[in-house]
Structures are given as C-alpha cells and as structure tokens.
Amino acid sequence: MKTIDELIGEGVEGRRVFVRADLNVPLADGVITDDGRIRAVLPTVRALVDAGAKVIVASHLGRPKGAPDPAFSLLPAAERLGELLGAPVAFAQDTVGPAAHDAVDGLQPGQVAVIENLRFNPGEISKDDTERGEFADRLAALADVYVGDGFGAVHRGHASVYDLPARLPHYAGYLIATEVGVLRKLTEDVKRPYTVVLGGAKVSDKLGVIGHLLEKADRIVIGGGMLFTFLKAQGHDTGSSLLQDDQLPAVQEYLKRAQERGVEFVLPVDVLVAPEFPDLKAKAPTHPETVAADAIPEGRMGLDIGPASQELYAAKLADAATVFWNGPMGVFEHPDYAEGTRAVAQALLDSPAFTVVGGGDSAAAVRILGFDENAFGHISTGGGASLEYLEGKTLPGLAALEN
Q1: What per-residue confidence (pLDDT) applies to 368?
Q2: For tag attachment on the chain, is the N or C end more exposed, with fewer CB atoms within 10 Å?
Q3: In Å, how far are 9, 30, 41, 188, 391 from 77, measured between CA atoms?
C-alpha cells in the first residue's frame, strides 16, 4: 500500500485530504476519559498540516442508529484534537450536508475540519452496496485524496473504510503503517519464545484467534471472565462466575490440540471472588476472598486472578522474546480487582521481550492504571482489528488501501 510519505512527496499543498481516523473515544457525561486514539492520529494530521493540505478528519463514535444523536457527537473529540494540535479545528454538524461542505470550503492550506459522526448517516454501515456506495460518493465529493488512518475500524466493511478509498487516490497514514508492521512481527517474523496473554469477558470473542495462535504461539496465558469457561472445561466448579456453557466443547478441543502441539496453556491457580459483581461507579470496598481456582465456592463470582497467579503469570512472561496481550485479567475498573491486570502490565515492562498491547480494554487499562505507554513495545488502537488480523482474516480497510 502507498504511504502518506509518498503522498506528501507528490505534493499536497492546497489539496483536500480526507483522513479516516478512529476518534471513537470513551465519553462520560460528554467528557473524554481516554484520548489515546486522538493522540494516535496526530502524526498523520500534523504532517498533512505542515505540508499545506486542507485536512478533513472523519470518524465514527459509538453506535448511533443511523441518525443524529447528541450523545454520540464528535464535537468533544474535535475540540480535543484542536487542543493537541494547538490550532483551531472547524467542526461541521453534519457528515455530507451543507455544514460539511461549508467547513471544507472554508479551509485554508494547513487547516483542519472535523465532520460529524459518520454513523449519523445510515449509509456508513449499510449492508446494501448501493446505499453504502451512494454515501461514499457524497464523502468523495468533499475531498481530492484519501488517507486511511483509523486502524480500529479497518476490520469493518463500512463506506468510509472500504468503499471510499476506491473513489479517490488512497494512502495509508502513519498509524496504520505502524500497526501493520507490528502485526507482521507477530505473524511472519516472530522471535521466540512467543507468549500470548488473552483476557476479557467472553471466550467466544477469542476462540478464532486462539485457534490460529495454536499454530504460532509457544505459550497461551488465560485470564479475565473467559478463564472460567476454561476451568469448567477442565471439570472444575466455577460458582456463579461468568460462563459460556455453549463454548465448552470448543474450549475442550483447543486444550486437547494445544497438548498435542506442545503449546503450553496457563490458567490461574487462585482467583479473587465475591458474592456479586462490584459497583463500578461507587467503587466501594467489596472485601474479596482469595480461593483456589479449582475450588470456587457456590454463590461466589470470580472477578480477578489471585496473588499466586499473578506471580505465576509474571514468571511465564519473564523468558519470552515476544508477547502479545489482549484483554484484562479481571474487573480492573474497580480497585479491588485491578491487581491481576496491573501485574501483567508490570511483567511486560519487566520483560526484555518485544511487547504488544492489543488495544481495547487492555490499552485503556494501561493508561488508567498509570503506566507509561512509551515503555511498551507497541500499544494498538484496535483490539478487534488486531485479533482479526491475528486470526488470518482479510481486513476490508487494509484490502482497500492495498488495491
């Protein structure tokens, strides 16, 4: 795929450049709680600004139902982008309507406009090729060139990700180029031992990548809510912990395949349990108990890996040459259940390995728990996209940039 450096080398002064970013930031009462994705697109936007382009930044945010919804407005993201750039950013209150055209027409070379949430238009995520194509045509009318830099959306075949690049000269931004380079190190040129740490709530979300990584990884470490389906598959009681009974046959098959292939599966030896899920707003103390992972009492819910497991997991990461981590070890948003995730993050920092934090909740946890992002080898902006790449799937947004 062509890169933004090639575009700038060709000359972009005065040209309208459409940057498909990922500004899908978490909001609480209209306030951004983690601006990592906005900061991730800054190198691309700054380079285009410095080269004199008229920059149009577009993104989705949340899951509005194809119509304007103030709760999902990109205005806070646009304001934050302006703060980080140190320059005013125009904001259009529609996607392809009069406000968008006025904002773009008003740009001078080196200026930036953000258009409203792409998903306010039903054509963005439509499964109908014609409707999606018509929306892409209207987006294309705003610009002369397309730069894809929203890695968190490249696994979606949406109008701004897949259809629009076919209508304009297209290039990969710095973020996408970096993300793809890192993922290739996890699939094509892997330094061993290669350890994968997977957490999160649902095992069903990770089965595809587990199946693929059984052919690649030397060791797979399991945490988060998904671990209880693994414990159940081994015949252990899991109390009232999160469980996906329908996934038990698949998990049992993967455990068998791992044993046959010599891939080490690491499960916790102890867990923190409580009678119920904690209140994440009040964050009042819950007084969890530490119990053996194979002896969770009835009526108790597992919410984090225990201290012995934290030591075990750190030891399993210490000798790795490559580590990919996706998914927290517990309910890290509550202080009583953050230590498992903290221990894994610290183990990655202590390891000499090339470490990749695979986006989503893991990336948020790193920031929320106060770790220095720059101390990790790479923190991805797209958890879902990273996982699908590691599964060996074709990602529509990357395919569009390669064509």
Answers
A1: 87
A2: C
A3: 29, 10, 12, 35, 31
H-helix segments, 141-286: 174-187, 207-213, 227-233, 248-261
Q: Return the SS3 of 18.
A: strand
| Cα 395 from Cα 290, distance rounded (Å) | 42
Give the count of beta carbons closer than 10 Å to the beta carbon of residue 67.
Answer: 9
Structure tokens, 152: 């968190």
Buried b (16+ CB within 10 A) or exposed e, 203-222: bebbbebbebbbebbbbbbb
pLDDT digits (tens, 9 = 90+) for 359-391: 778 888 898 899 988 889 999 888 889 989 988
271 neighbors 247 (Cβ within 8 angstroms): no
Q: Which residues are catalytic?
A: 37, 202, 360, 384
What pLDDT sits at residue 289? 97
Cα(345)–Cα(364) distance, rounded to whole angstroms?
12
150-201 pLDDT, tens digit each: 999 999 999 999 999 999 999 999 999 999 999 988 988 899 999 999 998 8
7 contacts 171 by C-beta, under 8 angstroms: yes
Burial label for 77, CB within 10 Å (0-12, 13-18, 19+), is buried
First to last CA, the chain: 7
